[in-house]
Amino acid sequence: MVEANKYAYGQRATFGDPAFTPNVTELEKLYLTEPVVAAARARINDTTTYGTAFYTPTGYVPGPEAGTSHLAVVDGQGMAVSLTSTVNTYWGSRTS
Predict the structure, then answer these.
(1) Contact call for residues 15 and 21 (beta carbons, < 8 A)
(2) Residues 6+ apart with CB under 8 A from 62
(3) 38-95 pLDDT per residue, tens
(4) Are 68 and 13 in contact (CB under 8 A)?
(5) What is the per-residue pLDDT for 60?
(6) pLDDT on residue 88
(7) DSSP per residue over the chain, as a string?
(8) Has 68 been annotated as catalytic?
(9) Around Cβ 78, how many Cβ atoms within 10 Å?
(10) Cα R_g (the chain), whole angstroms
């Protein structure tokens, strides 16, 4: 499960704000096709993990100044709130 999530996380490096990244919808469709899923599945190794670039379609790896933080909270009544913040990547508030 962890290895599969690494592929999904790697794919996010190719996404961006649809106002500035015109192919986001096509990428979303592509990543959910059976050939792409099968290719990722075939690369999963139960005994080995790899560096970040192994899991990304383009080999893009954000620098150390970039990052994503996620916070999720559920109260005693089952009410949930979540917050995700991405800074200095293509999807976040990249400044350069």
Answers:
(1) yes
(2) 13, 88, 89
(3) 988 898 888 888 887 888 877 766 666 666 778 889 999 999 999 887 766 565 555 5
(4) no
(5) 67
(6) 61
(7) -HHHHHHHHHHGGG---TTT-TTHHHHHHHHTSHHHHHHHHHH--TT----GGGGSSS-----TT-EEEEEEEE-TTS-EEEEEEEESSTTTT---
(8) yes
(9) 6
(10) 16
The single-letter code of the amino acid at 59 is: G
Give the per-residue pLDDT at 76. Answer: 94
Token pair, residue 65, equals 């100044």
pLDDT in the model for residue 22:
77
Query: Which of 21, 25, 52, 68 is an active site residue?
Result: 68
Tokens of 79: 């009410």
Write out the two tokens for 41. Answer: 């599945």
How far is the C-alpha of 85 from the C-alpha of 68, rounded, in Å?
6
Q: Which amino acid is at 54?
A: F
Tokens 């996620």 appear where? 70
